[in-house]
Amino acid sequence: MGKRILVLAEEKDGKLRNVSLEALTLAKQLSDGGEVQAVLFSEQAAAFQAQIGQHGAGLLFQIAGEAWKSYTPDAYAGALVQLIEQVQPDVILAGHTAIGKDVAPRVAARLQIGLISDCTGVDVQGGELVFTRPIYAGKAFQKKVFREGTVFATLRANNFAVAEGGGAAKIVPFEPTVPDLRTIVREVVRKTAGTVDLSEAKIIISGGRGVKSAEGFRPLEELAAVLGGAVGASRGACDAGYCDYSLQIGQTGKVVTPDLYIACGISGAIQHLAGMSNAKVIVAINKDPEAPIFQVADYGIVGDLFEVVPLLTEECRKALQ
Ligand code: FAD
């Protein structure tokens, strides 16, 4: 029998997050002829109606209003609980984003439903959904099956295919009761603007303590600009004050899964690998041939990053012209 799957879609900077498109595509596959529905907290649901429909959802619940203009845990969790009680989905999917990982456990706890976070795979085996997620900082994978009730799963970005094929979704305004709000967002101040979002970037150029200064990040930024990628960092570089902590990748930073990860002057500590070892292709540039990063790298360049990175940038610029 087909499943009813609800997808929490997220809008960022006027666009749907790519992981929301991954979630919709996955929902379509898993629904097995059932229903795919999406929910979007947005004043502009009509702008996303076609795209959400093309990626698999037949219905789009729009939640709009002052209480939902910016994310707050009480407002989002309260609204989602009310929607889920009404819709009764078998599965709820969301991106493992800042919002997804904050709201999913709150909703799951209030509704007493299953929760599985940071999934890197979902398969159907014998009619059951088998969720895969990394554990022990990515050293092992856990497979989980929920035999009863609804399950809320958050998905790690860049791990699922995106496909189109449907028509436009029908918008259904959903007007939840505004819950008691313990926090109110007065203003959102952006730290960085115009850069590629690290958690969804397909190409990441990352710098470690080997870049030696904030100025040392410039060659990496140039390479990222040529390749259309984002700049990341190790905690070593953040702790040394070379860059902002928002760039930190690893166990206590962001977990990324780009197609290409270029690690420059990063030794490859286990806590750093926890955040990037699932990248599809890893290139390491380090002047120490014994650096542990070479054990996980697909391509290793032993050399001074200040010589290698500009050469790489020049060659990429020529190749992409
Ligand atoms: P280093 O280990 O100092 O390595 C610098 C590298 O640069 C060396 O390999 C050196 O050979 C190379 N180098 C130097 N100059 C050049 C040059 N000119 N050209 C090329 N190569 C050069 N770390 C993280 O990254 N992310 C985390 O989330 C994280 N969480 C942590 C959580 C805990 C609880 C703990 C205890 C630690 C955590 N760490 C984390 C820290 C981690 O253990 C390492 O200390 C850190 O990753 C080291 O950063 P690094 O590789 O930049 O620096």
Sum this structure up briefly.
This protein is an alpha/beta fold.
List key phrases describing it.
7-stranded parallel sheet; 5-stranded parallel sheet; globular; ETF_a/FixB; alpha/beta; 321 residues; binds flavin-adenine dinucleotide
What Rg, in angstroms, do the CA atoms define?
A: 21 Å
What is the distance, rounded to the nearest whole angstrom, between the alpha carbons of the first and last residues? 52 Å
String of helices and strands: EEEHEHEHEHEEEEEEEHEHEHEHEH
Bound molecules: flavin-adenine dinucleotide
Number of helices: 9
Mean pLDDT: 94
Pick out the low-confidence regions: none
| Structural class estimated from helices and strands | alpha/beta
Tell how many strands the DSSP assignment holds. Answer: 17
Main pleated-sheet profile: 7 strands, parallel
Q: Per DSSP, what share of the residues sits in E-state strands of 2 or more residues?
A: 25-35%
General shape:
globular
Q: How much helix, percentage-wise, in residues? A: 25-40%
Strand order of the largest sheet: 7-11-6-1-4-5-12
Q: Would you write up a description of this structure?
A:
The mean pLDDT is 94. This protein has helices spanning 18-31, 45-54, 73-87, 98-111, 218-227, 235-239, 270-276, 293-296, 305-320; strands at 4-9, 11-12, 15-16, 35-41, 59-63, 91-95, 114-119, 121-125, 128-135, 140-145, 151-155, 170-173, 203-207, 230-233, 260-264, 281-286, 299-302. With 321 residues, the protein is α/β, with parallel strands linked by helices. It is built from nine helices and 17 strands. Flavin-adenine dinucleotide binds next to α6, α7, β16 and α9. This is Electron transfer flavoprotein subunit alpha/FixB family protein. Residues 5-193 form the Electron transfer flavoprotein alpha/beta-subunit N-terminal domain. Pfam families: ETF, ETF_alpha.
